[in-house]
């Protein structure tokens, strides 16, 4: 594997230290959440932070450098330790992504993927709920390859077990290989997947209301344990689901789990604006984050949603060093272990078509055709490529490091400055933190970055409400 020199990754330090902001315009007057009179409102005070948990780190080569952890995907002690560290730092939530099957569909990329073999996420979160007491527990679950009844029951159980800390990242699954793994000839179209997802969520919400709060009476004198007047079975007939029945579990502490979504396409954004309380996303520049927030605010208002009902936490690739130079030296070391084929593999994994018989790595990235994969991610990368005049090769290098997310590389002060800037310029409500190396960057972030954010009044010292939704200040 050869070195991966790239001025855009290792040379332009100001960009990565502060968070990229090419072409930034002052959108302050447009980036709040709009009330019904058109006045700008803020949804909350202070950053909200999720930890995007993977075993070895988000840099593809995190496992390959000397002294790193290898084979830690099924090391429960390692995962428990990171969950405790995140809670000690007062992260709002842990997030586990899941694609059900193998994410890396390219054989050359798969053989170097240290995050390929993982626990089923809700089983793992149930275990982590026993070793934590406050941090939220969020995982992806597909509406294409689950049933509303089974998933609603599973999520309600996790909310009970954790004392009201469960969250569901709603995904529609875009990988054609998954359809075949589940016995289908092909996957649904992009629009069909979102139509099915909307009906899935509607059915799940009906099921979470199967029993009223006073269902258990336990009256020994009448030998009545359940008040059947509190039973509200679901009777649903729709385009994708026909569901009749009630869950065999009572109302959970939150009533329903916190709903999370990461769609960036037009359909994905509208879906998020309708349902999501936490919105993840890919925003490689401050301007793209601002524009996303403006767009989602207008869409949410169109669905009649109150401004206090959602927050936007895009991904933030974080690598911490004692100094700016030390951080970039660490990044250079990691980049030296990345093979160019890894970036091409990531393109395929994200559903972005690259045919070497049609296109060259030196072609402008925007020339690659659209596919039925992650349309929003491709659009974000295409916008970045236009702003910075990036080739396919440039984008491959970028996604091999950060998957296209914003990069914050530098000293603790650099990273705190970048987070503060994005927050104060109303581009974000917080971040889904993607540590380059785990547990190293998580430890450094908790010990050195979070105290700076607290000193600036940007992050709380302790948890508030007992539930995840309440702790995040969501109504």
Automatic annotation (TrEMBL):
Domain Luciferase-like: 63-429
One Pfam family from the record: Bac_luciferase
NCBIfam families: FMN_nitrolo (TIGR03860)
Protein family per UniProt: Belongs to the NtaA/SnaA/DszA monooxygenase family.
Name recorded for this polypeptide: LLM class flavin-dependent oxidoreductase
Residues given in the record as FMN binding sites: 98, 190, 194, 264-265
Molecular functions per Gene Ontology: monooxygenase activity; oxidoreductase activity, acting on paired donors, with incorporation or reduction of molecular oxygen
Keyword check for Flavoprotein: yes
Keywords: Flavoprotein, FMN, Monooxygenase, Oxidoreductase
InterPro entries with a match to the protein in the record: Diverse_substr_monoxygenases, Luciferase-like_dom, Luciferase-like_sf, NTA_MOA
Lineage top rank: taxon: Bacteria
């Amino acid at each position: 594997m050869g070195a991966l020199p790239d001025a855009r990754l290792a040379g332009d330090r100001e960009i990565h230290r502060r968070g990229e902001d090419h072409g930034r315009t002052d959108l302050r007057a447009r980036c709040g959440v709009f009330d019904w009179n058109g006045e700008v409102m803020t949804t909350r005070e202070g950053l909200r932070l999720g930890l995007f948990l993977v075993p070895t780190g988000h840099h593809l080569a995190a496992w390959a450098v000397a002294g790193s952890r290898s084979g830690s995907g099924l090391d429960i002690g390692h995962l428990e330790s990171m969950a405790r560290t995140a809670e000690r730092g007062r992260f709002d939530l842990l997030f586990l992504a899941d694609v059900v099957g193998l994410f890396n569909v390219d054989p050359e990329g798969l053989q170097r993927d240290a995050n390929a073999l993982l626990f089923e996420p809700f089983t793992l979160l149930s275990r982590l709920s026993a070793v934590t007491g406050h941090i939220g527990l969020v995982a992806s679950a597909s509406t294409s390859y689950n049933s509303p009844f089974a998933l609603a029951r599973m999520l309600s159980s996790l909310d009970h077990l954790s004392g009201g800390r469960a969250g569901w990242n709603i995904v529609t699954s875009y990988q054609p290989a998954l359809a075949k793994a589940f016995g289908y000839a092909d996957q649904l179209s992009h629009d069909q997947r979102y139509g099915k997802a909307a009906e899935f969520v509607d059915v799940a919400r009906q099921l979470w209301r199967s029993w009223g709060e006073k269902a258990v009476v336990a009256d020994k004198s009448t030998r009545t344990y359940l008040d059947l007047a509190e039973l509200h079975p679901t009777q649903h007939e729709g385009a994708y689901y026909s569901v009749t029945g009630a869950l065999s579990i009572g109302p959970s502490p939150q009533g329903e789990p916190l709903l999370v979504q990461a769609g960036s396409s037009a359909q994905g954004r509208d879906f998020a604006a309708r349902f999501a309380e936490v919105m993840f996303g890919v925003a490689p520049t401050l301007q793209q984050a601002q524009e996303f927030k403006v767009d989602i605010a207008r869409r949410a208002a169109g669905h009649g949603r109150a401004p206090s009902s959602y927050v936007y936490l895009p991904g933030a690739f974080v690598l911490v060093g004692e100094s700016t130079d030390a951080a970039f030296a660490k990044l250079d070391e990691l980049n030296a272990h990345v093979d160019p084929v890894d970036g091409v593999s990531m393109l395929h994994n994200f559903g972005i078509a690259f045919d070497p018989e049609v296109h060259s790595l030196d072609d402008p990235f925007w020339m690659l055709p659209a596919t039925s994969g992650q349309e929003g991610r491709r659009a974000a990368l295409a916008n970045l490529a236009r702003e910075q005049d990036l080739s396919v090769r440039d984008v491959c290098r970028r996604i091999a490091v950060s998957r296209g997310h914003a990069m914050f590389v530098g000293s603790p002060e650099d990273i705190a400055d970048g987070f503060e800037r994005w927050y104060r310029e109303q581009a974000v409500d917080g971040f889904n933190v993607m540590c380059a190396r785990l547990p190293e960057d998580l430890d450094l972030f908790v010990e050195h970055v979070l105290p700076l954010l607290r000193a600036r009044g940007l992050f709380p010292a302790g948890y508030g409400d007992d539930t995840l939704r309440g702790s995040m200040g969501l109504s």
